[in-house]
Amino acid sequence: MKIKRLTANVYEVPLGMVNAFIIEDDGLILVDTGAPGSAGKILAAIGEIGRGPEDIQHILLTHAHPDHAGSVAELKQLTQAKVWMHPAEFPHLQNGFSPKPPQPVFSSFLNKMLYRLFVRNAPGEIPAATADELMEDGDWLPLAGGMHVAHIPGHSPGQVAFFMPGQKNVLFAADAADNMFGLSYSCFYEDLAEAQHSLERLATFDFDVACFGHGRSMLKDAAERFRKRFIPVHPATPAQWPAVETEAMVRMHEPEEKI
Ligand SMILES: [Zn+2]
Ligand SMILES: [Zn+2]
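# zinc ion complex -> structure
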């Protein structure tokens, strides 16, 4: 399991089906922690860049699903890290159980099948842990020169993404989307309308690189690709433009005619 450098200070840590990320600041910031039992792999990965457990100072959780928050408890014991998350899913971490959506929605048949194979019967239990800091939409975390928090519900109620400006602007998109078979919708959502709104919002950020919970990181033109994929075009086809213009003309002339 090799750690992969994405930018001057961002690394991808592949953990099988899911990714965690390392940001080099004075110390290290870990974004997500993989499934339960991943702490050893994460520590081995940072060993490859000459760092040890004592270097991990912060753990940012994008959400509390077991494949992202599964090793927080273990890592808290092995490091001095402070854990950050959104309050909406803090009780899940504290109670050691991350529920699945009561009625998951899917963007495709393939995603429905993947959910049935890998998610539906997966345990919701996670080793319980506590968070040290809660973060809200719009917060700027005083880490790595400033990281902007965007609350992006839809996949789960307390999911957050991080926008980190730098030499290259990086978006940690969590499970808002994935890049397993190209940039696409995540395997499942709890609320599709909220998820669509969250994706459109993410597409307004100006990022070069995008990092996903699942699938390969996107190393260039990532915001442009998000916009093309997730922002619907209005009107849908150029052929509809003349109709819109005609309507507008009619509206403009109406008051005059009435006077
Ligand atoms: Zn998830
Ligand atoms: Zn996930």
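# post-check
The chain has a mean pLDDT of 91.
The longest strand covers residues 18-24.
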